[in-house]
């Protein structure tokens, strides 16, 4: 189990009795984390690029399938003419070596494929994991034991190896992005099921859940009205962690040649092709690799910000740009009285946020 999973489990168990924060309160805690806000801006831009991929390609006047063989230097091994991979007014980021397809168009369409697969897999993981975790937490001892053992199998399952085996036997006519989302979603839901189960078991012992049962509410009604709202914070936090992991998994499977097939574009599939051109055309390798790195980093930083905003008692691993750190750093090391004077307003402001 990963460090992020253990952190989410600890947060779920430790914060079970805390009431859910409102949207304004969450935004107030999130906006002081500059790194998380920067990650959120990058995510929004990437989603907009993915949604508007046909528009961006039309503005450039290119598509993902047209071969521009006249722009390739056949004497040099079919590398593009010019510097930086053949960058020009017609091809903003150059063209692919060997094929001559426009690189900008393939990158923006690749964003649609990579993000679509990752989001679809994450939604499926959240739905399956939440259902298993909720059923295990609310069920009797036998149901809890059975569902927990099934969850343990999927947690310990070598997901990448199993995904390779499934993708290898499915007919090639099946839409590959949809297949990738299904395979990743059906295999890697075990950790989120454990998080939901821990949260449900902690909530079952609280007074308001017991009062709901004493009032005659059914198990499903109690789960829907009392337990599900408290699951939003841990599930949302872990979903933000799962998403970059799914992006990396899709890229890895496409890099191995069993993911997205040409002419469909994805960043992982582009990296697989670019691995043979890294010496002749380094830009072809660096562009999809840089986009993958920026996307995974943005989602990871934003997930940490969401975790801290939903659970203010959790200490952020990324203290970049927070107001409290800036005030504390400005206090001299020997000024104990001044430090205490600064710390008191911070604590007051934290209490004010927590009770607003």
From TrEMBL:
The chain crosses the membrane at residues 35-59, 115-138, 150-171, 177-196, 227-247, 283-303. The keyword Cell membrane applies. It is a multi-pass membrane protein. Pfam families: BPD_transp_1, OppC_N. Keywords: Cell membrane, Membrane, Transmembrane, Transmembrane helix, Transport. The keyword Transport applies. GO terms for cellular component: plasma membrane. InterPro entries: BP-dependent_transpt_permease (IPR050366), MetI-like (IPR000515), MetI-like_sf (IPR035906), OppC_N (IPR025966). It comes from the Bacteria. It is found in: Cell membrane. Residues 111-303 form the ABC transmembrane type-1 domain. SUPFAM superfamilies: MetI-like. GO terms for biological process: transmembrane transport. Belongs to the binding-protein-dependent transport system permease family. This is Peptide/nickel transport system permease protein. It comes from Actinacidiphila yanglinensis.
